[in-house]
């Protein structure tokens, strides 16, 4: 996976977070569609975190390969 592709995936995950925030009813966040939106927000945050970890690991791998 190259840098551009991971950035696109991160942007899509952030867009999903923004969309799901608009669905959440903050008066009753654990009822109906709000629960599904909260699950979507958490899942998108996990995806962003995993992609950032992946990018960091690729940077470390590249530095190790340059050193050898």
List keywords for this structure.
68 residues; mainly alpha; single chain
Explain how this protein is built.
It is built from 2 helices and no strands. 82% of the residues lie in helices and 0% in strands. It is mainly alpha-helical and 68 residues long. The mean pLDDT is 94. Helix 1 runs antiparallel to helix 2 (33-67). It starts with a helix and ends with a helix. The chain crosses the membrane at residues 36-54. Keywords: Membrane, Transmembrane, Transmembrane helix.
Short note summarizing the structure:
This protein has about 70 residues and is mainly α.
Q: Estimate the strand proportion.
A: under 5%
- The counted number of beta strands is 0
Mass-distribution shape: elongated
As a whole number of angstroms, the C-alpha radius of gyration is 16 Å
**Through-space gap between termini:** 22 Å
Structural class: mainly alpha
Give the count of helical stretches: 2
The main sheet comes to: none
* Order of SSEs: HH
Mean pLDDT: 94
State the helical fraction: over 70%
Provide the low-confidence segments as ranges. Answer: none
Could you give the topology of this structure?
Blueprint: H1 3-23, H2 33-67
């Amino acid at each position: 996976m190259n840098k551009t592709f991971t950035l696109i995936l991160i942007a899509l995950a952030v867009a999903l977070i923004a969309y799901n925030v608009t669905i959440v009813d903050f008066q009753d966040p654990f009822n109906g569609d709000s629960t599904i939106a909260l699950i979507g927000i958490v899942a998108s945050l996990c995806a962003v975190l995993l992609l950032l970890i992946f990018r960091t690991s690729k940077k470390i791998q590249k530095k190790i390969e340059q050193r050898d």
